[in-house]
Amino acid sequence: MTDKDYDSELPDALPPGFRFDEFEIQQVTESTNTHVIYKAWDHQLERPVSIREFMPRALTVRSDNMQLVLRSKQDSQAFNTGLKRFVQSTRQLAQFNHPNLLQVLSFWTQNETAYAASLYSSGMTLAELHQHQPDIINETWIRHMLPMLCGALAILHDEGFIHRDLSLRSIQIQDNGAPLLLNAGAPRRTNTENGDGNKTSLNPGFAPLEQYAEDLENQLGPWTDIYALGAILYTLITGNCPPASVTRTIQDPCVKLAKNRPEGYSHSLLHAVDCALALKPEDRPQSIAEFAALAEIPLSGINGLIPLKQPGTMLIEVENAEITPLSPFKKRYKLPLQIAASLLVGIAVGGIIFGGHLSSGPKIAKIEKTTSAEEAPSTTAKSVLPVTDATLARIYVRMNDGEQLDVNGKAENVTPGANGYGFLQLPVGKYEITLRDNNQQSRNMTLSVEKAGTWLINPQG
Asked: Which pLDDT does position 354 carry in this prediction?
């Protein structure tokens, strides 16, 4: 899309050629009720970047000198609340290095508002994909995309953040097929916050009841995003957005998918969507892990990267692999969070080592060439042992499509999953890990396992 596509819709967008020091605006790529996203050129590093501008269109207009001006003085509190949330969200997002979350490069204030620059990724929003290429969306496609999307949401929830604005327009499907959340959301609202700033970003059909009424704001939690996720899947499966939650309280015409069974979709996925769309927050899955269990999908194997504790080390053990639920969610929903913690054991990983350096994230393998690493047969090789054995080390090996993995010279039946990693479990011992491609080019490393734990490794050529 070019900026011309948005002339009539976004007359207040920054024009092509506008400069922020090294960043030059090229075109508008997406807009929401509260943000405008631009493609820009970084003249210093000579690469494209994305720039997100906080611009609540219901509250502001742009003056001739490019500054945002409030439509009314009465909108000041709502604007400031939204601006504060934008700043908090950007700072939070900057802490993550996850392949399905935006990677923030810089942040600044100008034109009476705030901006954030992130790595540019080409693709189209899920809304555009659903509109222009609906034929490619089926259960296989959804089950390829969903673990990565759920993994990104789980990361946000683990840090006490809620997205609040999930819809088909807030998810980009990149050229490699991987989903990308286009913003990080906001922290759970405290009792001292004013709710006026929350109403501009609601998407009818995707927002649950607790987002509409101020007296229900204290019920916001992971289940709020899970409702929106259910609405997204409902739309992809049926072709229609579910009715707005406020109208469903009077008369609920929302079709139960598990009862009507759309052709080509499994009961587990349909049942998970129905549960996610429950009107009462307590009737929905209380965590992404609980939703994933209902849908029978694995969570993405990588939930973010933690800085290396020992720079230069070829092998880093992940300590405390079990994810502990945050205290704000623990008191109200103890049992569901216990379920979430048990499902997420071993999923969190600490770092990806490439010759002693931290990688920017795993490459997403194409669905037609891979199967889930967790589903790889465990009975074809002695070293691939049952996951339930707590005495074993969990090893994630960075693999390319078509590579054969050998352990101590013996071929293993391991293939890379959607996150680009093969998985196996090994007892205490010393191992020679070798990866061979179709041209017999090899990568290898020596691995010493001294105790149970979780590792990410990337053998070098």
From this structure: 30
